[in-house]
Amino acid sequence: MAYNLKQINVLDLRTSTGVGVALPFNTPAVFQTVYTTKQQLKYNIINFLLTDKRERIFNPSFGANIRGKVFEQITEDTIDSLDTQIRTGVNQYFPNVVITELTFGGKPDQNLLTIQFSYTISNTGESDNITISLNG
């Protein structure tokens, strides 16, 4: 009989050791410590989605480049372009993330773009989702 064992990252075994920092930076101590790799992966994906290309020093190809799309006409071509940019970037920078759902919405008259992103971490089987709203 086969068993599906859940893999646990070594960093998650020490509950008192910080793994990274949370977004946004608005706590009294400036940085809020994150203690699990699942939470840190979520914040890393949010950072990727909110970063434009050529914005990160020494890694100019990092970023989903979606802020510029807020001012474009939201059409099927724009949605397809965003979908492709996000999927290829996530596959490149987060190979252990499997996108289960990626939907776009918003209000074109108000330059509002909403992205709902659901994913599964392939080596642990854990799932999570992210919702980002960009307003021009």
Question: Could you characterize what this model shows?
Answer:
- It is built from two helices and five strands, in the order ββααβββ.
- It has helices at 37-50, 76-93; strands spanning 20-21, 33-34, 97-107, 112-121, 127-135.
- It starts with 19 loop residues before the first strand and ends with a strand.
- The model has no long low-confidence stretch (mean pLDDT 84).
- The longest helix has 18 residues, at 76-93.
- The chain has a single domain (10-135), classed as Roll (Nuclear Transport Factor 2, Chain: A), CATH 3.10.450.40.
Oligomeric state of shown chains:
single chain
Percent helix, as a range, is 10-25%
Q: Main β-sheet, in a few words?
A: 3 strands, antiparallel
Q: How many β-strand stretches?
A: 5
Rg, Cα atoms, Å: 17 Å
Task: Give a short summary of the structure.
This protein is α+β, with helices and mostly antiparallel strands.
Q: Which descriptors apply to this entry?
A:
alpha+beta, 136 residues, Nuclear Transport Factor 2, Chain: A, 3-stranded antiparallel sheet, globular, 25% strand, two-stranded antiparallel ribbon
Reconstruct the topology from this structure.
Layout: E1 20-21, E2 33-34, H1 37-50, H2 76-93, E3 97-107, E4 112-121, E5 127-135
Antiparallel strand pairs: 1-2, 3-4, 4-5
